[in-house]
Design goal:
Blueprint: H1 7-29, H2 32-42, E1 51-55, H3 61-69, E2 74-79, H4 82-91, E3 96-99, E4 112-118, H5 127-137, E5 138-147, H6 154-169, H7 174-186, H8 190-196, H9 199-205
Parallel strand pairs: 1-2, 1-4, 2-3, 4-5
Helix pairs in contact: 1-4, 2-3, 5-9, 6-7
């Protein structure tokens, strides 16, 4: 399946699947995706009284974890799907969320000490623009964490067989999950992706890019 990453289509897709997105994640991963997100966030070594921006925040998992374990840090979630943000606000009643595009971040230069993004880059048409924007709003010495699948192996093939069955059982939108699986498979492994970056891209990262593997969509 061709991965059409037109922003309007991606936004519409996440709006449509938002109602059962968390349920599917929990069911398919048996809840382990929370642990993997926590382990990824822990790698950042977040300091008190720092500013964090969670790009493509979706239903607010990263925001919830960071708020719970690092209550002295301030985090803002940003996503362009209004429906996903509604769920994020329910999950994080005291959280701060902004409707916006990660390729045109509505914040000033060097406002954040950390930026997190879970399963975001593979759904973005202009990855370089997203990385450039992340670089722009990061403080000097700031850290950027990106969490996604990283290996394409037999376990991934089994996953691709199981997910469509589960989607059909729970009457989810199969076409949307076809895209999500295809975007997972087409996204390069962490070292392949890092090697593919141009010098200006590497300057953009400015800090730690952490790509971990997670058996999720």
């Amino acid at each position: 399946m061709e991965c059409d990453k037109n922003p309007k289509k991606i936004k519409s897709m996440f709006d449509e699947i938002s109602g059962y997105y968390d349920f599917m994640n929990n069911f398919i991963s048996l809840g382990t995706h929370y642990l993997l997100k926590f382990l990824a966030i822990r790698e950042l070594d977040i300091k008190p009284r720092t500013m964090i921006l969670d790009l493509c925040c979706g239903t607010g998992d990263f925001t919830k974890i960071i708020s719970k374990f690092y209550p002295r840090a301030k985090i803002i979630g940003l996503d362009f799907s209004e429906e996903m943000l509604k769920l994020a606000k329910k999950k994080n009643p005291n959280g701060v969320f902004v409707n916006g595009d990660c390729t045109n971040i509505p914040f000033g230069d060097e406002e954040f000490d950390y930026i997190t993004m879970g399963f975001g880059l593979r759904n973005i048409q202009d990855r370089q623009k997203a990385l450039s924007e992340a670089y722009r709003v990061l403080n000097k010495g700031g850290k950027f964490l990106h969490l996604d699948f990283g290996l394409h192996n037999n376990a991934g093939k089994i996953f691709n067989i199981i997910v469509p069955v589960i989607v059909r059982i729970f009457k989810g939108n199969f076409k949307h999950y076809e895209y999500l699986l295809a975007s997972k498979d087409s996204f390069p492994s962490r070292w392949t992706y890092v090697k593919s970056l141009k010098p200006q891209d590497l300057n953009t990262l400015k800090a730690a890019v952490i790509c971990l593997i997670q058996f999720r969509f």
